[in-house]
Amino acid sequence: WPATAERIDGVVHLGGMDVRDLVAEHGSPLYLLDQADLAARARTFREAFAGADVYYAGKAFLSVGFARWVASEGLGLDVCSGGELGIALRADFPTDRIAMHGNNKSDAELRRAVAERVGCVVLDSYVEIVRLADIAAAAGIRQKVMIRTTVGVEAHTHEFIATAHEDQKFGFSLSSGGAAEAVRRVLALPSLELVGLHSHIGSQIFDTAGFEVAAKRVVQLLADIRAEHDVELTELDLGGGLGVAYTVDDDPAQLHRFAADLRTIVAYECGRHGLRLPRLVVEPGRALVGPAGITIYEVGTVKPVQLDAGAVRHFVSVDGGMSDNIRTALYDAAYTCVLASRGSDAEPMLARVVGKHCESGDIVVKDAWLPSDLEPGDLLAIAGTGAYCRSMASNYNQVPRPPVVSVGGGQSKVLLRRETEDDLLRLDAG
Ligand code: LLP
């Protein structure tokens, strides 16, 4: 739960505000972000990674107001599409602190990144090396770049969000020599300035062992580059991926511990090769914004269903679902959920919190213990929904996406307003 979350007589409060009042003002479902929690997290990242660059991964959640906040916290921004770049530009984000990612950036995206003087473009394919070099040359700009490497680590996380094993689409393979070849090609192009290497092994990772292997292999390439080209690259970007706790069973690494581990690993490996210590870059998304967010839903129906074994499962339908949180359906993600609008002494019942969409896989919380007197009109709060919920939300079944409201000091501020039926029809050519 976010830093300021508390329950007063069973009622959830966030940022000093009663969620019933927040729902009365902003409606349900509702994404809430705890300003104090975010500020504390940004501070912890800055402290833990002092001397390193922290680039917030905007894919976790981004809006103009949020990008402004990221800038004001002194963080950089990782964008992975023209749309995310556009939001950053609208927020007047300092472009030299933006890194542009993506395995298939379009010409238009690359042209815009170069023209806006984006600090770094992370290269992901041979085709892109030539594409970007031509665009930069035509613009008369020497573009700073990094090369994304695939380090061949099996990150212990869901298959869809593991990104460093060989058989996936991102980066240049280290083991097959692809990354070394990419370095050769980039160094031969005067319009590109190679500043460093990048590795992102996956997301929602608890064990730093994967980062250890990644750092070891990437630093080896730094040493190989020096041997072959007599060039010492100055930046090492180890990506994002630090896991957060979604349930009491989750035991993520503490941020300071994680940062200390990364530094030690990089320093040790560089020391072994006699390399100057590169500037370390990390790109946290989830760990910065995930735990700061909660979602509030209103219960619409409670349906007991008799299971074969004689047990009863209570399907609790809420007014949102897979359109505002696809993570349970997509990754089998687990969430923590409580009754948020009142206290209850009723016995707990085994519940499944489901959405209002026309799919049986439309599940928000697979197994939740909720009071057995739960009834329509009650509010539920789901923890840990700050990252990859609004940013992955859809309009499936023509359901408008909920607003994102940040709360702090007894006040609320809309970052993204609720969609309306007019919004849904705005693109409809009729
Ligand atoms: N850097 C790069 C290059 C990335 O691809 C990602 C995430 C990050 C940083 C940030 O990773 P984080 O610190 O948030 O783990 N939709 C999935 C997560 C996909 C992550 C994709 N890349 C989910 O909901 O779990």
UniProtKB/TrEMBL annotation:
Lineage, highest ranks first: Bacteria, Bacillati, Actinomycetota, Actinomycetes, Mycobacteriales
Name under which the protein is recorded: Diaminopimelate decarboxylase
Xref: Pfam families: Orn_Arg_deC_N (PF02784)
Record note on quaternary structure: Homodimer.
Function: Specifically catalyzes the decarboxylation of meso-diaminopimelate (meso-DAP) to L-lysine.
Enzyme category, top tier: lyase
Biochemical pathway: Amino-acid biosynthesis; L-lysine biosynthesis via DAP pathway; L-lysine from DL-2,6-diaminopimelate: step 1/1
UniProt: substrate binding residues: 286, 327, 331, 359, 388
The keyword Amino-acid biosynthesis belongs to this UniProt entry's keyword annotation: yes
Protein family (similarity comment): Belongs to the Orn/Lys/Arg decarboxylase class-II family. LysA subfamily.
Cofactor: pyridoxal 5'-phosphate
Superkingdom: Bacteria
KW Amino-acid biosynthesis (keyword) present: yes
Spans through the membrane: none
Coiled coil: none
N6-(pyridoxal phosphate)lysine found at: 59
Keywords associated with the record: Amino-acid biosynthesis, Decarboxylase, Lyase, Lysine biosynthesis, Pyridoxal phosphate
Binding site for pyridoxal 5'-phosphate: 241, 283-286, 388
Domain Orn/DAP/Arg decarboxylase 2 N-terminal intervals: 36-289
Catalytically driven reaction(s): meso-2,6-diaminopimelate + H(+) = L-lysine + CO2
EC numbers: 4.1.1.20
